[in-house]
Amino acid sequence: MAYASEQAQEKRRGFLDPRTKLMLVLLLAVFVLGGLGGSTLKPVKTVLSALPFALLLIEGKTGRFLRGMIMLGIGYGMLAAVGVLPGVLRHIALMCGGILTRFVVTVMMGEYLISSTSVSEFIAGMERMHMPQAVIIPMSVMFRLFPAIGAEWTSVRRAMRMRGIHLGGAKAGQVIEYQLVPMMTSTVRIGEELSASALSRGLAAPVRRTNVCRIGFRIQDYILLAGGVVTVVLWVMELCGVKLW
Amino acid sequence: MNGKDLINIGIYGAIYFVIMMAVAMLGMIPIFLPLLAVIVPILGGIPFMLFLTRVKKPGMIFILTMIMGVMMLLTGMGPWPLLTCALAGLGAELCMKSGNYQDAKKAVLSYGIFSMWIFGNYLPLFTDYEGYFAQRADYGQAYIDAVSRLMPLWMAPVLLIACFVCGIIGGLIGRKLLKKHFEKAGLA
Amino acid sequence: MVELEHVTFRYGSETEASLKDVSLQVNEGECILLSGPSGCGKTTILRLINGLIPHYYAGELSGSVRVNGKEVEQTELYETAMHTGMVFQNPRSQFYSTDTTGEMAFACENRGMPEHEIYARIDDTVRRLGTEKLMDRSIFQLSDGEKQKIACASVDVAGTEIILLDEPSANLDDDAAQTLREIILEWRKQGRTIIAAEHRIAYLWDLFDRALIMDSGRMIREFSREEADVLSAADLAAMGLRTNIQESPKDIVLPACTETDRTMVIRNFRFAYPGCKEAVVSIPELRIAQNEITAVTGANGAGKTSFLNCLCGLEKHCEGILEYDGKSYDNKQRQKLCYMVMQDSANQLFTESVLEEVIISLTAGTADEKTAALRILEALDLSAFTDRHPQSLSGGQKQRLAIACALASGRKILLLDEPSSGLDYRHMREMAELLKQVCETGTTVLVVTHDCELIRACAGRKITLG
Predict the structure, then answer these.
(1) Are residues A162 and A234 in the same domain?
(2) Would you give the DSSP letter of residue A31?
(3) Shortest CB distance from C389 goes to which of B3, B4, B184?
(4) Which of C12, C286, C322, C385 has the fewest CB atoms below 10 angstroms from its CB?
(5) Same domain for A26 and A104?
(6) What is the pTM of this model?
(7) Beta strands C281-289 and C263-271: pairing type?
(8) Which of C372, C44, B31, C96 minimizes the C-alpha distance to A193?
(9) Beta carbons within 10 angstroms of residue B104's beta carbon
(10) What are the chain C neighbours of B56 within 8 Å (beta carbons)?
């Protein structure tokens, strides 16, 4: 059968709308990582923490899911070990465990956002939120460049290893210079080629852009958005001194 | 501002953000928490000074700063950085504008002012001391003790000044590398 | 369709003009080949036509450039973009989106074209160019050949009358170049105007209507179809151009290693990316001639680069050993035995001057470092650049410098990843000579390449991966 891009776009449409994903990232950043809210929000936070894992599974990112679970396991393992560890180790375990369990969850949410959202979907989401081009273009370029920067970073590190330049070998300042200068040079060159390519295809034309990505709120988005509202309401109620449980 | 300028904001914003996050991971160790006000401005000066060579029109610095604020919000640093970003971004923008976007000394000063946005990440430690540690109670008393010993109230102005001063130092280092590498490499 | 009249252009950052009084007229439906040595100005011409000069790359421009009768200098970039589309050289940096479908729709979306029309255009392109298998994929999973195919497809979807190709085949193997050829044929059939700047001219030699040869910013020769048909590879070489004969590394026969040869042996090499079951590199036993030049060939995605990384000891999870001169070397030990010149050699140059770069590579305890370094630079014909910043060198010069560092480090095995991609005839010959020279110093050289001319010019052995 002939390829039909419209149906294909519909079929590969992500489970969630990019705007819902952004809201979830924000909620996790504020309530789980930032630790906002007291005992009333405890159960809400537990649900929030489980979300990125569930979403990774739904999108079929098993590898990332397992990695996250292992990290989380280590974190809880540390917390569990607090009871049996002596002296200083105990404090360290408590601290590392506490930080790890919080960070892993938020990092997983970020990984879910980035791995399940293409730049086109991200742009589509931002356009629906009526963001101006002055925000959409820089942010989409950033998301596009993060993996490239990572690749350049690894490539420079390898080159340093091959040439036998180690942190111990030379002065720290020099090593940072050796690492940063080629990495930045490459990234800037990639970025400039990217912008030449984008501008020669009419980016930033003063017309209303269209977008072939299929996004929009569906039932799962509404449920999660409602959950977000509930979280905020509970938090405000707690601030006002209302105790629910 | 045209498309090229907006893409440039994205390119340098991405480099600055990656370098900052790589360093910020150190901040989980209490002793490094105040030191971030030193390390981030110094290293960040390298991409930022290169960015300033691309800035010829008003607004680019402000947009980049605000995007950093939004990224901080999304990575769990709370809403305070948004406020400091708005102020620092505006200040850095005006400083650069007063030199017609060409003055090298104003560029260093502008980066110093820009760097003060970092202070926003520390603000909850001082404005809402109780709340800050209540939110981190599960890190254990040792962590709380360590951080509160490192961060008495008088550290607030010290950190703000450190951001600025180290920003100036970072700006100077950035300029040095600009001359030493990027100009010769044909990038600046 | 496209008219250049007495165009002279100098890039803002340079002292010499890149184009000097160039005039060119391209008619509707014509297919033009632009060729000439590196730095001759062919990319500059393409940038003038799609408006990137002067709107993106600033500089001093005189003369007039008209596309469809419109003066490009006075036209906004996004308006010129309605008529011209360009495929760029580097497959890694021309994608704005991270998914293939979004990338193909990009140009139309920017024009505000209704979605249903874009879908129809994409479907049409997919059918004609045969990209079904590449649709709805992440660009990070594609090989370089597949990426260039998508880049062509996005130009096709945009439907511009003029198509510009800027060395699109530089990173491609023969099969991928053939695919590119078929796409150009398809565009010819549709009557689009095509201007292709290329070093590697064999794959499109019989496609063009006119060939224009440039040198140092000027048009020096023009060949009509009939005139081009009688040119031999030797005629082209005399003009500093690559061969027009299509050939695949598969066709080159070189002697295999025998028991009596001095060889180094790779045993039980196995490497898979973390989380992948299937190994990219899996070599039970392989003999490689010592002190000779061996070409490593194989299709895009056959794991050639991974093989080099493994050999160099850069892949921590690579199993297996290398036996060299009766000793066996594991991952970490190989790091001190091998030196690799990466495809993107810019990432392995760190210092502020060419001289400094060689000095830090010298083996510890070298007496009079500066003299030793200067001697190596002299031997590699880099003396003129001693004080230049490594990142300001051209691609070919960067590779030369990387080889200089390898020599300075005194390592026994030199590995190169596609050293001739994007090199013109003269530079390719120079690279071949240099490798022979390096080999004579007692170094074993392995070259990953798909360039038949390079293989013929220097390699004594060949191994095929995948």
Answers:
(1) no
(2) I
(3) B184
(4) C12
(5) yes
(6) 0.93
(7) antiparallel
(8) C96
(9) 14
(10) none
- Chain-chain contact of A200 with C348 (C-beta, under 8 angstroms): no
Confidence at A36, pLDDT banded by 50, 70, 90 = confident
How remote is the C-alpha of C237 from its chain's centroid? 19
> CB–CB of A156/A182 below 8 Å?
yes
CA distance B93 to chain C (A): 24
| φ, ψ at C263 (rounded to 5°) | -130, 160
Within a domain: residue A30? yes
Say yes or no: A78 and A167 in one domain: no
**Residue A73 in domain:** yes
pLDDT computed for residue A100 by the predictor: 83
Residues A93 and A37 in one domain: yes
Is the N-terminal amide bond of C54 cis, ω within 30° of 0? Answer: yes
Counting every residue written for chain B, the total comes to 188
Residue C358 and residue C380 in contact, taking contact as beta carbons nearer than 8 Å: no
For residue C447, the one-letter residue type is: V
Side-chain half-sphere exposure of C184, counting CA atoms within 13 A: 27
Q: How confident is the model at residue C449 (pLDDT cuts 50, 70, 90)?
A: very high
CA C362 to chain A, closest CA, distance in angstroms equals: 10
| 8 A C-beta contact, residue C418 and residue C410 | no
Indicate whether A170 pLDDT > 60.
Answer: no
**What type of residue is B162?**
A
The minimal CB distance from B185 to the residues C56, C77, C392 is found for C392
Residue B137 has pLDDT above 80, yes or no: no
Query: Nearest CA to C1 among C68, C64, C72, C70?
Result: C68
The Cα–Cα gap between A20 and A228 comes to 9
C324 vs C289: CA distance, rounded Å: 11
Residues A109 and A36 grouped into a single domain: yes
Residue in A33, A153, A189 closest to B76 by CB: A33
User: Encoding tokens for residue B187?
Assistant: 């990038």
User: What is the span of the domain harbouring residue A197?
Assistant: 132-202
User: Phi and psi of A215, rounded to 5°?
Assistant: -130, 175
Check whether residue A72 and residue A102 sit in a common domain: yes
- Do C91 and C109 contact (CB within 8 A), yes or no? no
Chains that touch C (3 or more CB pairs under 8 A): A, B
* Residue B56 forms contact with C (CB below 8 Å): no
CB contact under 8 A, B143 and A26: no
What is the rounded CA–CA span in Å between residue C202 and residue C326?
44
Indicate whether A50 and A137 sit together in one domain: no
| SS3 assignment, position C266 | strand
For residue A169, the model assigns a pLDDT of 54
Q: What pLDDT, on a 0 to 100 scale, did the predictor assign at position A171?
A: 66
DSSP reduced 3-state for C271 = strand
Residue C463, beta-bridge partner list: C296
- What CA–CA distance (Å, rounded) separates B38 from B22? 14
Establish if A188 belongs to a structural domain: yes
Does any domain span residue A122?
Answer: no
Instruction: Specify whether the CB–CB gap between B77 and B27 falls below 8 A.
Output: no
- Give the whole-angstrom CA distance, residue B14 versus residue A139: 9
Residue ranges of domains in chain B = 3-182
Q: Can you tell me the distance from the alpha carbon of B140 to that of A185, in angstroms, rounded to the nearest whole number?
A: 43
Cα→Cα distances C85→A16, A140, C54, Å: 34, 22, 17
